[in-house]
Amino acid sequence: MLFPIVAWTLVGTGWVYAVLGILFEPWRRLPILLSPHPATALDASLTLLWVLSTGGVESPWFVAIYGSIIAISLRPRPRQTMIAAAFLGACYVAMALALRQLAGREIDVAVRSLFMLFVGGGAAIVAHARAERLTSRAKLLELTQEVGRIGTWEWSVRDGSLTWSEELQRIFGVPTSFVPTFEKFIGAVHPDDRARTAETIQQALANRTPFRFDHRIVASDGTLRSLHCRGVVVVARDGTVTELLGSSQDVTERRQMEDQLQLTGKLASLGTLASGVAHEINNPLAYVASNLELLDRQLVDLEGKLDGGSTKPLQHAVAAARHGAARMRDIVRGLKTFSRIDQDGKTAVDLARVADLAIEVASHQIGQRARLVRDYAKAPRVPGNESRLSQVFMNLLVNAAQAIAPGAAADNEIRVRIFTDEAGRARVEVSDTGSGIEPEHLGRIFDPFYTTNPTGEGTGLGLSICHGIVKELGGDIEVTSTSRKGTTFALSLPAVDASEAELRPASEPKQRAVTTRKRICVVDDEARYAESLRMLLGYDHDVALAPSAERALELLSGGQAFDVIVCDLMMPGKTGMDLHDELTGSSRERMIFLTGGATTERAREFLARPEIRYLEKPVELPILEAMIEEVTTLASAGRMGA
Predict the structure, then answer these.
(1) How is residue 189 annotated by DSSP?
(2) Vertex 325, ends 322 and 331: CA angle to 5°?
(3) Suppose 127 and one of 68, 73, 373, 428 were both cysteines; which one would form an S-S bond, judging by CB atoms 3.0 to 4.6 Å apart?
(4) Taking Cα atoms as reference points, which of 53, 49, 14, 40 lies closest to residue 120?
(5) pLDDT at 239 over 70
(6) 7 with 1: CB under 8 angstroms?
(7) Do β-strands 591-595 and 614-616 pair in parallel, antiparallel, or remain unpaired?
């Protein structure tokens, strides 16, 4: 050896460096050590010093230079590997000259130097191919993380260093220059989840078992995000825990979807319950309303015929009761409308009627916060679905109410304005004097899951659904708002054109005056309601009762003829639909159906048929009489079913 002290020092330094590097991994705290340029310079210098100290050109360890070139090729780009190989070759020649070892070894030195270039070239080619594969896989991994919103992390237990992938930095909303630490991570966790998160990690370290848990974070921009975290504990051969490796997936949107699905399930259950309750209420409400109308007529007939008394006080009481029954009828119809399953059928919708139904259902919430003003002008009917438009009105009314703090109803106003715009379209404006919407939120107000409500209040889907319904019907919806002054949502919908003129709802016939006395058969299993209809219609017609479809068939087969058959749609045993199927000719065409709610698919399809005439319970007597007159008029003209 030329310089034994240097050689042995290098050996000792190498061993110390290797041991310290394995045990403490200093590059975690000093990322500069992972940079290829300092590492390349250090490797080349140490290798040359080793060759120099062990004999220079005569050293048997000159092959270490080839190993150094191969090691260098693993770090920088191919051209840098060639530069390093050329530099080492030149240094080897310079070493031979400086030590005066070139004489007699010119060919050996030249061959070895050229071979260094060959080794560098070959290593560069192999390293380049490997680097391309690694780069491609790294890009694929990065893309996969971005698509899956999954960030990876690595936490060294020994020195506390924490490494995040770029995707995890994006999830937390921090720049790429951000240096993560465990303390910063815990600080970003939602305060309510912080203790549980730290406890889960500590238990995993103590038990040395894989772990998974969900937690929330507050990103740098203040948004709340939900993460699903998985990790494993890495244990060294000596049994000590060295690090934790894991991933954190942003599942915010999935959680929102799951919450919405749960809410949708609850709403579906409530809708089914509301539909069933409405159906059950309809029958008793129907005969209460009918009997009140009958009582009102009889009181009018008795006026002036009683000795020493007037029926006026009783008439006022009955009128108040009828008003209450009418309100109950409107609320029940509103519930049925919102819970209706047949969402696809189109009718010519009266927007004022839809607005009134929504107002009835939302009246309690509105009444606590503001005065409600109906500002209705003449507006065309629109082709649409009453149930879906009711959903739009209901959302807008509830939003308007929620924008106003309760307790000052006299000082606030919610106005529903319906009119015809300059283009002949129906226009609806729902305005409130509430808190308004900040300008930065207006551009996203119709985005799914976007809400300005506090966390946990609302799903951010109401206005998005409204926007979709209105657009599907060929309309437009827009919003204008002033902070702390109020908001106006405006809907513009196309009017029914000539090709859609036949979309008039079957439940709203033109009212006609009663002309001649007719024979009517009322088929209904609800005896009280059937009796009240018999007494009401009995003023102008001859009415027979049939408590079932079977009894109605017996009357008809026994020779009795009826001008009109008023039949309940749903009855035990044979339904009104079954009766319709068994009748033939004019008897079938003279049927008017009464329904408390089409609760089956067959019933909905049956009522959707254009030749079927029906009214919803509780029936308004003038409309029923008008339909009876319409049926008999068409029958006498021979145009039934046309």
Answers:
(1) B
(2) 145
(3) 73
(4) 40
(5) yes
(6) yes
(7) parallel
The distance of Cα 107 from the centroid of its chain, to the nearest Å, equals 78
Domain spans of the chain? 4-145, 149-250, 342-505, 519-636
For the chain, the maximum distance between any two Cα atoms, rounded to a whole number of angstroms, is: 153
Q: Does domain 342-505 have CATH number 3.40.50.2000?
A: no
Distance CA 346, CA 388 (A): 10
What is d(CA 89, CA 73) in angstroms, rounded to the nearest whole number? 15
Q: Put the strands of the sheet holding 426-432 in their side by side order.
A: 371-376, 413-420, 426-432, 486-493, 476-482
Distance CA 641, CA 329 (A): 30
Positive or negative torsion for Cα 627, 630, 636, 640: negative
Quote the distance between the C-alpha of residue 641 and its chain's center.
45
**Structure confidence at residue 510 (pLDDT):** 47
Query: For residues 588 and 586, what is the distance between their CA atoms, to the nearest angstrom?
Result: 5
What kind and span of H or E run contains 525?
Answer: none
Contact of 570 with 603, CB cutoff 8 Å: yes
Q: What digits encode the pLDDT tens for the residues 29-46?
A: 565 555 667 778 878 888
Per-residue pLDDT tens for 546-583? 999 999 999 998 888 899 999 999 888 899 999 999 99
Q: Looking at 149-190, list the stretches that DSSP marks H as alpha helix, in order from N- to C-terminal side.
A: 166-172, 182-188
Q: Give the integer Cα–Cα distance in Å for 461 and 453.
A: 12
**Helix H segments across 303-311?**
none
Q: How many helices (H) and strands (E) does the chain have?
A: 20, 17
- What's the CATH architecture for 519-636? 3-Layer(aba) Sandwich (3.40)
Instruction: Report the alpha-carbon distance of residue 377 to residue 427 in Å, rounded.
Output: 10
Q: Evaluate whether 28 touches 156 at the Cβ level (below 8 Å).
A: yes
Tell which CATH classification among 3.40.630.30, 3.30.450.20, 3.50.50.60, 3.30.160.270 matches the domain 149-250.
3.30.450.20
Interhelix angle 312-339/351-367, nearest 10 degrees: 100
Q: Which residues contact 440 (CB under 8 A, 6 or more apart)?
A: none
β-strand partners of 616: 595
In angstroms, the CA 217 to CA 151 distance is: 14
Q: How far apart are CA 314 and CA 295, in angstroms?
A: 9
Dist CA 356 CA 334 (whole Å): 9
pLDDT band at 108 (very low <50, low <70, confident <90, very high): confident
Say whether pLDDT at 341 is over 70. Answer: no
Lowest mean pLDDT among 111-115, 267-271, 339-343: 339-343
- Backbone φ, ψ for residue 60 (5° rounding): -70, -10
8 A C-beta contact, residue 272 and residue 336 = no
Return phi, psi of residue 523, to 5°. Answer: -110, 110
Q: CA 641, 382, 513: angle at the middle one, nearest 5?
A: 50
pLDDT, tens digit (0-9, with 9 covering 90-100), for 476-527: 999 998 888 899 999 999 998 755 544 444 444 444 455 688 999 999 998 8
The total number of residues written for the chain in this structure: 642
DSSP state at residue 161: B
User: pLDDT, tens digit, for every residue of 153-182?
Assistant: 998 887 788 889 889 999 999 998 888 988
